[in-house]
Amino acid sequence: MKISRIAFAMIFVLILFQIPINNVVADASPYFVSVSAIAASTGVDVTIVIPSTWEPGDIFIISGLVKDVDDTVTVTGYTSFPGSPVSDIFSGGRFWWFWKRATTSESNPLFDKSGTTGDTYAMMALYRGTITIGIPIDYDDAPITTFGDPALCGGTDVNLVTEIVYSLVVCSVMWLDDNNAAVVTTSTNPRNYVEHYQESAIGTDAALVFSESQKALTGNTGQIFSDFDVGGVITWGSIAFSLFGKPLYNTLISMNIENPGANCTYGGQRLDSGLDNGDGGGTSDDGILQSGEIDDTAFVCNGSPGTNGTNGTNGTNGTNGTNGTNGTNGTNGTDGTNGTNGTNGTNGTNGTNGTNGIDGVLTLPVIVLIIIIFLFVVGVIHPVFWFLCVFVSLYSTYIFTAEFPNTLWAFIFLSFGIMLLVVTMARISGVKLGLNPRRK
């Protein structure tokens, strides 16, 4: 369902200011439907005709009077009120009350007495709108019987205490006389009652009355009186009780964004509403509309986008703000790659020639010769130095051959000369080339 923007604005205001919407449930409190005619006899059982206006779930209340204090009464399928019956020894009357919740199929109940004597009177009242499970009656006090005008309706504590708002307070009075045409029932809270008076001239005659009034608040009713329009009633029996109905719940509305789609082409708002009654496994009276409590859904859709308006003129520039404080220095970046090598510079000018050194060809063999002679002399101490002498001679031959090719023959000659000198000296000294350098 889609609603106009005006309706949406009204709903939005209601949500904004948390105004309860439709916070009374239809048939939330019990109410009177009808009464039957009095079923009467001079001794036999009587059958009460259920009013044709009854519906399944209605509460049937039966009040009955027998002019015989010894009888017992049963009504099949009905429950007797606590404390019922009560008897009056002065008038010889006995008073009963029964109740039942109507099913889908009901037959007229029999007011079944244990005896066959005594004038008998019975009547039924129908009430609707009570709870559909459990006992719908608050038995605040037991029935009583006494005499006087007005009649005190029920109870030794002289008042009825209702515990649920919008309860229906009911007063039932019966007596053995038909000398009245009406009664007026009153109490402190509620103040005004509707009376349903029935009488019968059969036998010694009798009158039966149901009176009820809705009580908006909980608490004491105060004394409930039924005032006879004509005096002279000898004794009477009475009871007061209350009927309570379905709890009253607030209606809650929840508004959520509706994305573009089948419900709203350009998107909009989704409005869910329902009673805060705990349907669907939720919690009642918690102020939250839960998914199981949603009874109705409406959508307030956005219109199609309009054309762009003309650009407005630029506003004047604002004054510059003060400079912010400097931020902290950032971390150093990574080193860059090395640059390419530069080109080689030009060669410098040649330096001046140095002075000539000693002739290497002459000087080096002399030095080698000195070393060989030194090794030879030291070889007197141990022959190992003679072997070093031979090694130096041969290695020098290799060096001189590579570095001074022009002096090769002279070096070879020198080397052989030295070797001969070594051998000669070894012979002269008598030294053998072995582990023992001296002869003993």
Task: Describe, in plain words, how this protein is organized in 3D.
By secondary structure, the chain is α+β, with helices and mostly antiparallel strands. The chain has four helices and 24 strands. The chain has helices at residues 5-16, 360-378, 384-403, 408-429, and strands at 31-35, 39-41, 46-47, 59-66, 73-74, 79-80, 86-88, 93-101, 110-113, 120-128, 137-138, 144-146, 151-152, 161-162, 167-175, 183-186, 194-200, 206-215, 219-220, 225-228, 236-243, 251-258, 268-275, 296-301. The strands form six sheets. Strands 1, 2, 4, 6, 7, 8 and 10 form a seven-stranded antiparallel sheet that branches. Strand 17 (194-200) and strand 18 (206-215) form a beta hairpin. Helix 2 (360-378) runs antiparallel to helix 3. The longest helix has 22 residues, at 408-429. The radius of gyration is 66 Å and the shape is rod-shaped. The termini are far apart.
How many strands? 24
**Spatial shape:** rod-shaped
- Largest β sheet strand count, sense and barrel closure: 7 strands, antiparallel
Q: How far apart, in Å, are the first and last alpha carbons?
A: 142 Å
The run of helices and strands is HEEEEEEEEEEEEEEEEEEEEEEEEHHH
Give the C-alpha Rg. 66 Å
Instruction: Report the β-strand fraction as a percent range.
Output: 25-35%
Structural category:
alpha+beta
Helix content: 10-25%
Task: Look at the structure and give the mean pLDDT.
Answer: 81
Helix count, DSSP H or I runs of 4 or more residues = 4
Low-confidence stretches at least 5 residues in length (pLDDT < 50)? Answer: 13-27, 435-440
